[in-house]
Amino acid sequence: MRPVAAFLSDAPKQIERVYGTDSVRRLEQIVQLKTGILRATDLPRASEVNYILSTWGMPSVEEKVWRGLPNLKAVFYAAGSVQSFARPLLKAGLRLFSAWESNALPVAEYCMSQILLAGKGFLPASQALRRNGKAAWTPSLARGNRGLVVSLLGAGKVGRALIRLLKPFGMKLLVFDPFLEDEDARVLGVEKVDLKTAFQRGQVVSNHLADVAQTKGLIDATLLGSLPQGALFLNTGRGATVDEAALWKVLRARPDLYAVLDVSDPEPPAPGSPAYSLPNVFLSPHVAGSLGTELESMALAMADELDALIGGRPLRAEVTEAMLSTMA
Fold it and tell me: Which of 39, 67, 143, 286 is catalytic?
């Protein structure tokens, strides 16, 4: 008899968004899929389930509930961060898999596009044209992308994907990541630096730090105020890693600096936040991750991982409790 798998989410429409026709068909080749979508309150009656499939809307369930499912072996999460629900699940002895690597690529692509535009001077040039019209029609605000100094905060899945994408453009890549080994930095072809240096030298600083206790408000006024003339601060990581009051203060004092913020704290920014009014702040509504046609890539990645687990083949996307201290 084939293993039984079930969808679980307290936001069922998210399951429908992410698990499309192709991924459902692929899953049906691997397991017996239960009809319908379970909610957290249904779990105590799901004793026959071997594997759970989820995505955004995954509930945080108490450890004792997980332990009450004798046949459950693993949870597959077709999205990125697992911080909101992972610990009780792992403590109950279950295995957890996340599509964070699949979700990392669209984030890296978004960052690459913003970095390339920064090298071309897009934001200041666009502003100058709006203010001054024909008189501002000059390419002098562009520094060019070859030799552009880009500081990446974090060398996790997104950071490493971004390094690969930026390599062909001849940029100087600096990385702040306390967990990055010197030899690994050498293989990646990046310069390992401390946080202070990353801000002092980075013509673009791209934040990919995890939101953990040690990083809350880590990016402060001193760091932000040390950015070079005309620099861009790009945040697709977590809003809580930035002291936003300090960010607004620095951006008011330094109109030469720019911030592109895909995340904030809270999210979206509160009504009246300077994020909406400062001319050198550019917001996007958390669009860097997988969207539209990109969503099913995460579901297909989890289907492949489930197939590999059942078949005893090498796994790529397992999350352990030890990893949670450094993951976004």
Answer: 286
pLDDT at 139: 62
Instruction: Report pLDDT for 325.
Output: 80
Say how far apart CA 244 and CA 307 lie, in whole Å: 43
Same domain, 145 and 273: yes
268 SS3 class:
coil
Is 286 in the active site?
yes
Determine whether 39 is an active site residue: no
CATH of the domain at 257: 3.40.50.720
Question: Is the separation of the CB atoms in 26 and 300 below 8 Å?
Answer: yes
Statement to judge: residues 78 and 193 lie in one domain: no
H runs (alpha helix) in the chain: 12-18, 21-30, 63-67, 86-91, 100-119, 122-132, 157-166, 182-188, 195-201, 221-225, 244-253, 295-311
pLDDT, tens digit, for every residue of 236-280?
Answer: 999 999 999 999 999 999 999 999 999 999 999 999 999 999 999
Same domain (yes/no): 121, 256: yes
For residue 78, what are the domain limits?
4-98+292-325
Helix (H, G, I), strand (E, B) or coil at 95: strand
Mean pLDDT within 44-69: 97
Concerning whether 191 is annotated as a catalytic residue, the answer is no
**pLDDT for 195:** 98
**3-state secondary structure (DSSP) of residue 313:** coil
pTM, to two decimals: 0.87
Does one domain contain both 206 and 266?
A: yes
Residues 6+ apart with CB under 8 A from 183: none
Q: By percentage, how much of the chain surpasses pLDDT 70?
A: 98
Block residue for tokens 């809307």:
57
Cα–Cα nearest to 106, from 302, 305, 303, 294:
294
Q: Which of 63, 101, 109, 267 is catalytic?
A: 267
Q: For all residues of the chain together, what is the average pLDDT? A: 95
Check 238, 244, 296, 305 and give the catalytic one.
238
